[in-house]
Design brief:
With 412 residues, this protein is an alpha/beta fold. It is 46% helix and 14% strand. The chain has 15 helices and twelve strands. Strands 2-1-3-4-5-6 form a six-stranded parallel sheet, sandwiched between helices. Strands 9-8-7-10-11-12 form a six-stranded parallel sheet, sandwiched between helices. Helix 6 links the parallel strand 4 and strand 5. The longest helix is centred in the first third of the chain and has 24 residues. Bound molecules: uridine-5'-diphosphate. Uridine-5'-diphosphate binds next to helix 3, helix 10 and helix 11.
């Protein structure tokens, strides 16, 4: 028997969100969820820790359950050749030409075939299956007796994919009933309906809930940060698309004219094999400057990241490609202006000159860092607008509303 909403603490969870969003938002969600009561929904991705997809599913799945949906979260696992191949996919889909040898593509297919063995029953019986990103996309092909609707949910910036790799992936995603992208620019010629749903953050999570000033201070003291120096922060996996070296360059240019410290905080995702190499490059670039703090954090350091975001003056997300950039929303929710790369999902969140600045180079980022640190009133006002903007647009309740609307539409 399935647990009731009361047994899973669903009522309490919903009450907690009501306090943030107001009753109207929750009432709307209850209405939308009513026809989906008891529906079996399975989300599948490739890691439980690290990166934005895991961050979202950790919160979205329990929230769906709270609204009476039988939601589950499954992950697929693979070996090193599989993750090398899917990282190649990721890089290629975001525009970096990659040569994926036949052997790698075979590892990709075989890993999905193997994972389908364990997942087949629950996937075939589900009313809705949501497959996140390219890693588990071939699962559909190995579930021939599926009865529900299958949705491919792409979180990455596929606006200018390297064509040969997209062509390969397209073969696997074409048979889906629909796909979801984060931005209209990412949509692709596919023979099924495509929907645009932007990701979201959870205001009640350890990553985003309010913290006391002393909790924030303790975290900073623990890392040896100087309470007197302005702080700029970038939180990211160590990935070249996040441009950590460009961040260091921006800091160097800005710090010639204004004293400041830089925190680069990140960890790996278990499905990202390039992290170590990029971290090495970052450490080398930061060497000899005691005001650059490169923090390698465990995957569950949510409260630490929360505290660092609150302690910072400005949040950076200087990505060169970005599907959405939860770290942008996280910083803005803490009342920080964000200086972000003028790309992908960052453009949705950083309204130039209003909630932060969009930049295209280290020089641009350095200019905006100095500009804001010299105008404290403006910095504060931008930060307040940023928080409001996230409250209005990018909380998990809006995300759930759009998922429910899509699922209700697919019922008929
Ligand atoms: N994150 C984390 N630890 C890290 C680095 C990142 O918990 O060491 C979190 C970060 O706070 C955000 C998510 O992982 O919630 C990253 O999502 P985003 O959309 O910014 O980027 P992605 O990693 O998915 O490309």
């Amino acid at each position: 028997m399935n647990p009731t909403r009361e047994e899973t603490g669903g009522r309490e969870l919903i009450d907690a969100y009501t306090a943030v969003t107001g009753r109207g938002v929750i009432h709307h969600l209850e209405q939308l969820a009513a026809p989906l009561k008891g529906a079996r929904v399975v989300h599948v991705n490739s890691t439980r820790e690290g990166g934005g997809v895991a961050e979202i599913l950790r919160k979205l799945v329990p929230l769906k359950q709270a609204f009476g949906i039988e939601a589950r979260w499954e992950t697929i696992s693979g070996d090193a050749p599989f993750y090398r191949c899917t990282k190649g996919f990721h890089n290629a889909l975001q525009g970096l030409p990659q040569n994926l040898p036949e052997q790698a593509l075979q590892a990709y297919e075989q890993t999905n075939r193997d994972n389908a063995e364990a997942l087949r029953q629950s996937l075939e019986e589900a009313d809705f299956v949501v497959i996140h990103d390219p890693q588990p996309a071939p699962l559909l092909a190995f579930c021939p007796n599926r009865k529900g609707k299958w949705i491919w949910r792409c979180h990455i910036d596929v606006s200018h994919p390297h064509r040969p790799v997209w062509k390969h992936l397209k073969k696997w995603v074409t048979p889906y009933d629909s796909s979801i992208f984060s931005l209209p620019e990412f949509a692709q010629p596919l023979p099924h309906p495509q929907y645009i749903i932007a990701p979201s953050i959870d205001p009640l999570s350890e990553k985003n809930r309010d913290l006391t000033a002393s909790e924030v201070q303790q975290t900073c003291t623990g890392f040896g940060l100087d309470p007197q120096l302005p702080m700029v922060l970038q939180v990211s996996r160590f990935d070249r698309f996040k441009d950590p070296l460009g961040v260091i360059e921006s800091y160097r240019l800005a710090s010639r004219l204004v004293p400041l410290q830089l925190v680069l905080a990140g960890g790996g995702a278990s499905d990202d094999p390039e992290g170590e190499a990029v971290l090495g490059e970052v450490r080398q670039a930061a060497e000899g400057d005691a005001r650059i703090h490169v923090l390698q954090l465990p995957a569950d350091a949510h409260r630490t990241i929360n505290a660092l975001q609150r302690a910072s003056d400005i949040v950076l997300q200087k990505s060169l490609r970005e599907g959405f950039g939860l770290t942008v929303a996280e910083g803005m929710w803490k009342g920080k202006p964000v200086i972000g790369g003028d790309t992908g999902g960052i453009r949705l969140q950083v309204v130039n000159h209003y909630t932060g600045f969009l930049v295209r180079s280290p020089e641009g980022a350095a200019l905006r860092i100095r500009y804001l640190l010299h105008r404290r009133e403006l910095l504060k006002a931008m930060g307040e607008r940023a928080r409001r903007f996230i409250w209005e647009n990018y909380l998990i309740t809006r995300h759930l509303r759009e998922y429910l609307t899509l699922m209700v539409g697919l019922l008929h």
